UniProtKB/TrEMBL annotation:
Keyword set, alphabetical order: Membrane, Transmembrane, Transmembrane helix
Protein name: Type IV pilin
Residue spans crossing the bilayer: 12-35
Organism the protein comes from: Clostridium baratii
Domain of life: Bacteria
Transmembrane helix recorded as keyword: yes
Amino acid sequence: MRRKNYKYKKKGSMLIECLVATFILTTICMLFVSINKGDMVSFKERERARDNSILLNNIISELKFNVKLEDLEEKFINNKLSINIGEDFNNKLQNENILNINDESRKKFILVEKVQDLENGIKLNLILKEDDIEILKYEVTKELWMEKRKKEKGIH
């Protein structure tokens, strides 16, 4: 009779061990999935921040070296200029003047503010906004030598 009780207890303890092992494996899988989900969110945020930084640096370079001060001054309205950014903005930037690009997207844009007139140029604030939330802000100085160097080298 003892043998039957022993076998019965062994079968019951195996069932409990299987349930505990299943619980542990499920907990580990859930932890792994939640960690990966957090990593993906973090990766997407870093990717978006990198893309915004590249975009703003491209616009800074374009304004500093490929736009004349006179053209920039003409486009200012109350010392401000808004550049709308669409999905194909970087491709358009390769072929068109930045001041002539006008995407219909109002979701994402660059606000260029004239901060100060200098004797050899102007100081600008460039603010990248998305859904009216300020994402990045840079202060840039556009100087006359940038235009003279372009003329001397015969760059269009």
